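The aim of this short unit is practical: by the end, you should be able to scan a pair of folded records and say something sensible about each. We start with the first protein, listed as its amino acid sequence and then its structure tokens.
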Amino acid sequence: MTKPPTSISRYDPRQLTDEELVQHAHVELFHVTRAYEELMRRYQRTLFNVCARYLGNERDADDVCQEVMLKVLYGLKNFEGKSKFKTWLYSITYNECITQYRKERRKRRLLDALSLDPLEEASDEKTPNTEEKAGLDRWLVHVNPIDREILVLRFVAELEFQEIADIMHMGLSATKMRYKRALDKLRENFSDTAET
């Protein structure tokens, strides 16, 4: 680990590693946000994709991304570097997605109890390409939320199994097993669809 900067100096944030940016952020925040902004720029697109695939819609994904970015901003000064910044970021993202997912589930139950049709309400928010979603999104509906998150962290965030296990507070072998079962389920659903 390199020595943290002792004063705010001129530097090109695009030339620094995540670790070096974190060190600059420790010194600079909250007066200067240059290092923080570069970290968010690097991960913003993937962060949004992870949230969108986990939550199933862009509106909730955008809300969660904003919440994650605020948590990173306020938590970065306390980040000790015991894991990679990327792992820490996706750990926060995972927890925020879980929270949002639970909120939406409670809202759906309430709508059901009030005899409102959540599908009718959601139909107003459809985008023109909703039905055109391809690739991973189309198949993620076939697996449970935990397995979906493992697949998203592996394929979208491109994390290693150990990083995924750390984020999800699971053992490495359990993570790999769930990953394999989720892939098997997707293959099974794909072959069923291909036959019809």
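Turning to the second protein, read its sequence before its tokens, just as you did above.
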Amino acid sequence: MDPITQFVAGGKIPVGQWGRNFFDFLTNNFAWFFDSLADGLTAFLGGIVNLLLMLPPIALVLAIAALAYALKRSWKLSVGVIVGLLFIINQGLWRETVETLVLVVAAATTSMAIGVPIGIWAAHNPRVYRVLQPILDLMQTLPTFVYLIPVLILFGLGIAPGMIVTVIFAMPAPIRLTYLGITSVPKPMLEAGQAFGATKRQLLWKVELPSATPAIMAGLTQCIMLSLSMVVIAALIGANGLGRPVVRALNTVNIPLGLEAGLAIVILAIILDRMARIGKDPSR
């Protein structure tokens, strides 16, 4: 080893130890907060899962199909929802699908509720976006398995850490796309609103948000797809759902089980994507 390399490698910066000390500090001083948050999320999400599972599967299938028709006014989409969910029931994966559906909807809703306001704030304040940009890059490029270590330390196993990991992974999409939508509003539209005496709040609600709606809805669909991509990862930290049979199939090299669970995830992804897209379904 040459002297320069030896010098650089010899004085290792203890980044890992600093991280461990930081998380030790959090667990020693704020364990009550993280435990309360995990217990609250587990009780809330578990309660919704149990409530949905109390309903007859056919009734829930018809309710989701009716919601799809109400959103898109497409009977073809409703029929596709019914056929896809009946196939999942036929494969014996209904409970896992409901658990995954609750996790994905909760994570996507939370990501949008946090991400859209942050995106609006960043669009109106360039300094905020300059600070956010490296953080968002880190959130999107950091390997997902790295998220599991601190989340497991702080929240333990279960559906709560699974949701938290999913929110962290999916949140950059609505932030970036909301920022893009707001900053892409044509200046003549803003100038026209200002000429009519609109306040900043009126410009936001009546000009910027309507113009940015396609980008924001694209952020929602990205959120849903990213949340579904975390299903298997979340199963590794105790979150039930369709990721659990995938992990079991991987551990036992069970090709039929893996194929069944994989198809169920694909069907659920297609249903949620079609329902979340803006506008009516042109194929109806």
